[in-house]
Amino acid sequence: MAFHTLFPTFVYQEKLGKPALSKSLIQDILSDAKGLLQIDEQGLEWSRDHYQNGYTSYGSMDKLHEGFPAFQELATHLQPHVKRFAKKQNWDLGSGGLELVTMWINIMPPSTVHSLHLHPLSVVSGTFYVNTPSGTSPIKFEDPRLDRYMAQPPRHPSTPKREQPFYTVEPKAGEVVLFDSWIRHEVPQTPAARSKPKKDLVDLKTARISVSFNYDWR
Ligand SMILES: [Fe+2]
Predict the structure, then answer these.
(1) Which long-range contacts (CB under 8 A, 24 or more apart) does 56-60 make?
(2) Residue 119 CA, ligand 1 centroid: distance in Å
(3) How remote is the CA of residue 26 from the centroid of ligand 1, in Å?
(4) Less CB within 10 Å around the terminal CB: N or C of the chain?
């Protein structure tokens, strides 16, 4: 008898590099984040409409790796991780390669959520975590077959984590998480914020801060 496990989906989680490297890079990114909150009027306006109580440069400055040295450095350190991810996938990239095309920052106070979405034009997406306060929200992935389950019964609560319809990864500051751009994911509200929803001010010490990015095959 055999049970064949088919079509695996890989989510990669690893420390970016040595702790000292992450620490100094995180300080530099935080310093740039302070600056962005001062100058990125378009992003602040976009966030008011699309990113409740938080700030993201997704709608205004999504090529931070091209203009800010700290993000450029982050891009350099991401390369071996993306290479490892591509190897695990057995991708034949031919004469091309995976190229970093967009990189933006996300500052999420406890009440900010990022609803279910995917990154439709890319191949590899991911996030580097800058600040993950205690009790911070995980990143939650959805089983891509969910819309085909039709009459399938629900699973027992004791089902192994990786066989459930949603899978959460709890990242720590200094870590990088990579995933296929087609997999839907979200950042739910921090549990503590659910009981007393309120308008939070962007505070870099207590916010969940991350840098997200997309790689295309070119
Ligand atoms: Fe995303």
Answers:
(1) 56/104, 56/105, 56/106, 56/107, 57/104, 57/105, 58/104, 58/106, 58/212
(2) 6
(3) 20
(4) N
Question: Residue ranges per domain, the chain?
Answer: 11-148+159-195+206-217
Q: 91-108, pLDDT tens digit by residue? A: 999 999 999 999 999 999
For residue 109, what are the CA distances in angstroms to 35, 69, 206? 18, 25, 7
- CATH superfamily for 11-148+159-195+206-217 is q2cbj1_9rhob like domain (2.60.120.620)
C-alpha 117 – ligand 1 centre gap (Å): 6
Per the confidence metrics, is the pTM higher than 0.85?
yes
Report CA(6)–ligand 1 centroid distance (Å): 25
d(C-alpha 100, C-alpha 79), whole Å: 9
Q: Report the separation in Å between the CA atom of 160 and the middle of ligand 1, taken as the mean of its atom positions.
A: 25
Whether residue 194 is predicted with pLDDT greater than 80 in this model: the reply is: no
